[in-house]
Amino acid sequence: MEKVKLGLRENWQQFSLLVLINAFVGGMVGLERSILPEMAEA
Predict the structure, then answer these.
(1) Do 8 and 15 form a contact (C-beta atoms < 8 A)?
(2) Each residue of 1-42: pLDDT tens digit?
(3) How far apart are CA 35 and CA 42, in angstroms?
(4) Using CA atoms, how far apart are residues 13 and 18, in angstroms rounded to an integer?
(5) 3-class secondary structure for the chain?
(6) pTM (two decimals)
């Protein structure tokens, strides 16, 4: 079993993936909140 490494330098790949996923989720929520009300009015 590998020893757990702490810190951003050791885990920058996982941290980058987390940031990327959060950006996509935030973008989807933003699009949903801005586009769907306009579609509902039409």
Answers:
(1) yes
(2) 889 989 999 999 999 999 999 999 999 999 999 988 888 887
(3) 11
(4) 9
(5) CCCCCCCCCCCHHHHHHHHHHHHHHHHHHHHHHHHHHHHHHC
(6) 0.70
